[in-house]
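User: Hi! Is it possible to get a structure for several chains at once, not just one? Here's what I have:
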Amino acid sequence: MIVRVSILALLIAGNAAMAANSMAPPPPLFTADPARSTLQFSFRQAGAISNGRFGRFTTEFRFDAGNLAASLLAVNVEVASLDTKDKERDELLRGADLFLVAKYPGATFRSASLSRRKDGNYEALGKLTIRGISRQLRLPLAVQITRRADLTTMTLRGTTIIRRLDFGVGQGDWKSTEWVGNDVTIRFDVLLTTAAAPANGK
Amino acid sequence: MQLRNTNTAWGAVSQTLHWLIVALIVLQYLLAETAEELPLGMAKLATLARHKSVGMTILGLAVLRLLWRLGNRTPALPQAMRAWERVLARASHAGLYLCIFALPLTGWLMSSAKNYPVSWFGWFQFPDLVAPDPGLFDTMRATHGIIFNCLSGLAILHVLGAAKHHFLNRDDVLIRMLPFGWRLR
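Assistant: Yes, the chains can be modeled jointly so their relative placement is included. Here is the combined structure:
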């Protein structure tokens, strides 16, 4: 009896796992609404925190809380769209000593895996590429989903700190961190939508 | 020398604030001229950061100076001065006070308008006074320059006035602002 129940339990568990992995439909694709999404950065310049934003970037997130293995986050940033509210500085940032946008117009993040954290938020482990240099990055993700009849909306928020010199953003004089700090704080607040109903939606 | 002012002499606090602000304004001029020559880059950032830190120091000292002046007696002007001379003396001093407030404040506005927040020697950051605004930056930059020209004009008048008191009127108006002025008596 006990043996039989165990086998049944194994069978059910096995089916559930299979359903989640191979038989489940792919997670719905959420795409960002650029008008309601922001990607900001702040950095220490001459002792004061200065800030800027990237005006143009795309975010695609295949997400299913019940199928994280098949979930995937992809962000593409048009580096030249950077805006620090000072044209002179923006030009300098686009130039050879900093982002070198003529050669490296895009910055990207691709998740390799997603996991759920104890606090209920998610974490994407993936590859961040800036100025042609890729580094592993752990990106915390606060995901909030609102379902309506025809449209599912997601807000995706998070903050992380990267080091600009890891990506070669700072050549010549700018390798020094005396007047411009190495740490750069990235903040994103992205609004995404999908037409498809999530597989595990309630 | 005593700390507080008397009817006939400036105390040590007033004298220190006067000469410290003079020295810092000269330093400010040199830093601004240096920065002006540089292209946007590390050296310019560093020079302007110092200019801004010193400017905020002057603003702090100006506040202290005004408070000290209001809470203290002011040495009387010489009896021999005519009415128009008294008016000119009071007005030019008011103008100088106005400049040591208006210069740092317009500089602070320039920084906020250009989205280059002000730090005090990297120790702490001042809040922005306005949102980034390139048009306002240009206006404030021009105003900052005009106020500096006013300050320069008033300073020349101030020095000429002090020289007139010392050499023509032979009174103690200059000497009472000199730290070791008693030696010149």
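The longest strand of chain A covers residues 133-147. Residues 14-19 of chain A have pLDDT under 50 and may be disordered.

User: Great, thank you!
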